[in-house]
Amino acid sequence: MLSTILALLLIIATSIGSTFSAMKDSDSVDNQFRIGNLQTEIIEEFPPVETITPETPYKKEVTVKNTGDVPIFIRVLAHPYLTYKEQLIPTVTDDGSKLLEVDYNLSDWIDGQDGYFYYKKVIEPEEITPFLFSKVIFHSFEQIETLAGVNFADLKLDFTIKVEAINTSKFAYRDAWWQGEIKLPEVDALLQPFVTE
Description:
The protein is of the alpha+beta class. The chain contains four helices and nine strands, in the order H-E-E-E-E-E-E-E-E-H-E-H-H. It has helices spanning about 1-25, 140-150, 170-180, 185-190, and strands at about 40-45, 55-65, 70-85, 85-90, 100, 110, 115-120, 135-140, 155-165. The strands form two sheets. Strands 3, 4, 6, 7 and 9 form a five-stranded antiparallel beta sheet that branches. The relative contact order is 0.19.
C-alpha cells in the first residue's frame, strides 16, 4: 500500500512539473533587419561677388546628392533672404514687388506652394539631382533702395536651404510630409509610380 501511495505521489509530482514546464516553455529567434541609410548632401556653388550689377545673373547652383544606400524622395526648402547690417530685409515687398529673382528649375522640380520644392522622381544612391536653380538676378539699385529703404551696397544675400529625404516605401512621404493626407495631389501623382511596397 505504501508503495502504491509513493508511486501515485511520484506520478502526480512529475505531472505537475511537466505541466508547469509546458506553461513556461520559451524559445527565441534572432531576426536581423537592416535599416537603410538615408543621407543627402546639398551641393551648392555660389562664387563670391565683389560688385553687384542690377539685372545681371549671378551663379548660384544648388543640387542634392543621395549619399545614402537606399532610393529616396526629397523636398527642398530654398528661401533667399537679404540682410542689411544684420537686419532681415524681405525679398518681396508689401506691394508684391520682388527685389530679386531666382530661376527655379520647374522642369525637374515642382513648387509645392508650401515653401518646398519637390523633386519629381526617385533619387537612387549616389545620384545627383538636376539644379534646383542656377542663378540669381538683382533688380535695379533704385528699386531696392526705394522699396527696402536701405543702401544697396550694404545688402548681403544668403539662402536658407534645407533638404528632407524619405524612403520610397508606400505612403512614407505622405506620412512624413503631409501627416498621412494627400495635401499636394500633383506631387503625389508624380511620386506614386516610384513607390515601393
